[in-house]
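Self-study notes.
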Amino acid sequence: MRLLVKAPAKINLSLDVLHKRPDGYHEVKMVMTTIDLADRVELMDLYSDTIQIISHNRFVPDDERNLAYQAAKLLKEKVGVRRGVAISITKYIPVAAGLAGGSSDAAATLRGLNKLWGLGLSLDELAEIGAEIGSDVPFCVYGGTAIATGRGEKIEHIPAPPPSWVILAKPTIGVSTAEVYRNLQLQSVNHPDVDGMVAAIREKDYEKICALAGNVLESVTLNMYPEVAQIKEQMRRFGADVSLMSGSGPTVFGLVQHDSRLQRVYNGLRGFCEHVYAVRLIGERHEQ
């Protein structure tokens, strides 16, 4: 038997870091929402009690370093399943981009295996398992739009933002999340108004959402990688209503509501950035 599961990317409409915790993690408060750029995760039963990762992307590990592999292994251990699975991952979300591609693949694996193996676990139970794999996995289990706190694993669902286009541009560089956090000077940064963003989303106020979008990690990444700052600036110049880095970068996203503006921004960015995508906000939660 086989099952196909979509694994959508996320963007951060607001991302704040509050302080460093005694356990070494940073306490965050952020607003995340899913977008219509998704990997395809296909799950296939195996006769042997093994986990196989199949991917034709050379940047995707095919062993226990892969978060989808870790998800399958942990789920098997938690529920005592002795069945094998082949996990085929077709990548559409760029790798190491600040869009939670690996975390979403892991979340899709948890949701899919729950169905494939008839486990009957709730999304809350799957999210709890996902939290052991990575901070973004619980959000990706639910999808939709949410406030994430703690190290990102505590999820409070909120309504979807108003419909809009999302333009994504990823420079051909890698950004180390650990290095970005290491260089973050919390006492000297402007903290975004996360609560204001939540209120704007609840009010479906697109202009206020654009005005309040903020990411505290930009203060580090834009200094370390001038290419990211350049894309952010060009995106606004071409007509995006807002441009913001997602996660720790390097992907920058812009929001536009009108198709004519979308084409202008998209075509402008294609001129000097190889990886450019135009997709819709989804913002709605996964079904059980």
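Second protein, same conventions, sequence then structure:
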Amino acid sequence: MAAEELMSKHKTALNHERAFDEERKIASRVKQRRGRNRLAHGLFFLATLVGVLVLAVLLFDIFQRGWSYVTADFMNNFASRFPSRAGIKGALWGSIWLIAITAPLTFIIGVGAAIYLEEYAKKGWISTLIQVNISNLAGVPSIVFGMLGLTIFVQILALKKSVLAGGLTLTLLILPVVIVAAREAIASVPNSLRHASLAMGATRWQTIQKVVLPYALPGIMTGTILALSRAIGETAPLIMVGAATFLAFTPGSVFDEFSALPIQIYNWVAQPKEEFSNLAAAGIIVLLVILLTMNGLAIFLRNKFQR
């Protein structure tokens, strides 16, 4: 009996020792994982901090140099070779005209194409090929779309250096982005909603109009406005279609010549006088305000339609 009790105590001691070793190994692994987690957290925070600091330095430099130039005269004067008389009125109105043309065309064509591809097109290699090419077009450099706009709208259709040619070129530029965003928003609508609508006797178009589009509208609107934010800051396509760097009037129709904020900023930066660099900084501030307003509108519309 004494031997059995001794063996039992020995086994118990061994089990306790093994459990202690196992707990120690587990604690060591947890410590290593926490260390790697803290290291990854630090690296990600450092990467974010670098981006934020660079942006803060750029914004500080821009506002320091350009804020004093953002005046009523700056907003109401046209471009001039004298820095004290130069303003951004022509370029600002040119950008407004461009967005007024690009926004409805992009929304109507982009959403229509997304509805067809997602709701009507038969699933097959042709549909897949179209979708892959649209996704690839979203990553094509903007200068390529500028050359396309120059060939089709300026030369073949003889629209010349007009607002319409610039607006159509920007429409081509952001159309693939809008189509992809709208397709993803439409695809996120649960099929149960479609089936319920069809079961109630609604037609396919009524289901799309009354069920699918209202559900997908927040994503569609967000993608469209962010794409327009990209379009308003583009320079290369507008240079290709002949946007003016010096314009002393605002466009009166879609067939008039035009300038745009990025073009005017680019022209001022290229000037040798320091005052023009400060004017360029002021133009960047105006452009940033427009971009932030558009992004804020996208957030507002998304939250409103989600409710």
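Instructor comment on the second fold: The longest helix spans residues 2-66.
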